[in-house]
Amino acid sequence: MNARARSAHAPDPSPARPEGRRPGSPIPVVTLKPGHVRPVWTGHPWVFAQAIARIEGGALPGDEVKVIDPHGATLGHGLYTPRSAIPVRIYTRDDAPVDGALFRRRIERAIQHRRDLGLPNHAAGHETTAYRLIHAEGDGLPGLVVDVLGDVAVVQIGTIGVKRREGIVFDALSELLSPRAIVDRTSVELAKKEGFEAAAGVVRGDTSVDRFSFVERGLLYEIPLALGQKTGFYLDQRTLRARVEQLAHGRRVLDAFSFVGTFAMAAARGGAKEVVAVDESALAIEVGAECARKNGLLGRIHFQRDDARQALSRASAEGGFDIVLCDPPKLSPTRGAKEGALGVYKALASAGCRATKAGGILVLSSCSSAVSIDDLTRALALGAREARMHAVIFDRHFQGADHPVSAAFPEGLYLKSVIARLEVL
Fold first, then answer.
1. Contact in structure between 259 and 282 (CB atoms under 8 Å)
2. What are the respective helix, strand and coil percentages of the chain, to the nearest 5?
3. Which CATH entry fits the domain spanning 29-92: 1.20.200.10, 1.50.10.20, 2.30.130.10, 1.10.533.10?
4. How confident is the prediction for the chain on average, in pLDDT?
5. What angle do CA 241, 396, 137 make, to 5 degrees?
6. Which of 218, 209, 39 is nearest to 128 (CA)?
7. How far apart are CA 19 and CA 36, in angstroms?
8. What's the fold here for domain 234-424?
9. According to the UniProt record, where is the region Disordered (predicted)?
10. Dist. CA 316–CA 403, nearest whole Å
11. Segment (H or E) for 293
12. 85-112 pLDDT, tens per residue?
């Protein structure tokens, strides 16, 4: 990143927030019920509401709290969110405080981990300046996501506890990365549930920033801030895009739910005979076409604004593609919505199979943590059967290494994809 002076016109990084406990006052204590201790003791970072026996000490939203078992043994310290189904997210496993020094150490550790992974990568032909820097629980900072998109750091705040400490986060990012700007892309809906007001746009640095400019695997992207998907880009599918590029040579490829056509550009660069990218967002299609033009690939990709499901149906009627990619938005944000989501995945798998030629390849993805790889595989099997085809999975992909997952936190493995060859029954 390029160092740049902090703008005098940047918004106040520490907006009004609820008062916490007074310095030096005792830390509130959360006691767990018998039978609810083992997951937290094992290392799971969430304390669910139904696991709590009592809270003592007058904890306020965002306060640090101490979590103990029914016998008084310390399980850790975390941050408190009373309005959530997950009232406490654990940060430490002893009596170490959740303070500014801890946040900075974990941010430093996250930066080093990415460097160990080779991110950013400046090797010719493989340049990558976009990656996830902080993956919440995976980096020991529940409620905080930070992506690096070129010379800009993009932040998403998921809890009121992190919101009350955002100045610490912004200071650390500014000092350790020297970004041109820090942009807040926190979900307004999530912030409302957590009890705080989400910021929007540049919160530190150059307020003239209106787009993200970065390189992934040698492909240049320019994404306007107005295109509001996640932090601005789907960084978690980098390895799958590389795999699609390997498979695409000489094949006709349909990229459904294409966003800005990341898979389409990978396929085109991989030597695909024909590539069609479909998304219902006019802005995503426009941005995707411009990115393809900058990479010399526009003449090899047809960008089409349409409903992805209609595009799949049309592809089926017209004889199908050699490779079909189905990477829909999150369908199951909660476990309660899982059954309905599985039905949608089955229908989508069926449509994807019909849109794929016999002997062709279907790539089916889910970014819903409540949907396991087994759930997705079953949805594919049922969808293929409905389409009178047989799916043989030969590859599986998950989120990239810059999206780490604690062994004690299976919910952290949210992204999964299957690549299957389709055969006629």
1. no
2. 30, 30, 40
3. 2.30.130.10
4. 93
5. 85
6. 218
7. 30
8. Rossmann fold (3.40.50)
9. 1-27
10. 35
11. helix 282-294
12. 999 999 999 999 999 999 999 999 999 9
pLDDT digits (tens, 9 = 90+) for 333-373: 555 567 778 899 999 999 999 999 999 999 999 998 889 99
Residue pair 419/387 in contact (Cβ under 8 Å)? The answer is: no
pLDDT reported for residue 339: 76
Q: Which pLDDT does position 337 carry in this prediction?
A: 66
Q: Which of 291, 326, 353, 367 is catalytic?
A: 367
Q: Which long-range contacts (CB under 8 A, 24 or more apart) does 93-101 make?
A: 93/43, 95/66, 97/64, 98/64, 100/165, 100/168
How is residue 425 written in tokens? Answer: 């029954």
- The CATH class that applies to domain 100-214 reads alpha beta
The CA-atom distances, in angstroms, between 6 and each of 21, 173, 207 are 31, 12, 9
What's the mean pLDDT in 162-188? Answer: 97
**What is the SS3 string spanning 10-69?**
CCCCCCCCCCCCCCCCCCCEEEECCCCCHHHHHCCCEECHHHEEEEECCCCCCCEEEEEC
Give the strand pairing for 356-366 and 416-424.
antiparallel
Domain boundaries, the chain: 29-92, 100-214, 234-424
**Total residues belonging to the chain:** 425
- 367 noted as active-site residue: yes
- What the block records as the tokens of 296 is 């010399």
Q: How far apart are CA 380 and CA 373, in angstroms?
A: 11
